[in-house]
Amino acid sequence: MPERERKNSEPGREESAADRRRRRAQFLRERTEAMELRERVQPRRAKVARLRQQMRMRTFRW
Known about the structure:
The protein is built from two helices and no strands. The protein has 62 residues and is mainly alpha-helical. The radius of gyration is 18 Å and the shape is flat.
């Protein structure tokens, strides 16, 4: 799979592990915030999604 070029990065520059962790942490914070907002806006749909996720985790085989 070809590596995607970043808008802010120089061509051929490898991103550091710290940069990757920082971007990942930001993504996870934004994702959590979006999920919390969804729960406030659509509580019934969010509850159903939560129950489905719990069911998937219960039926998952290690």
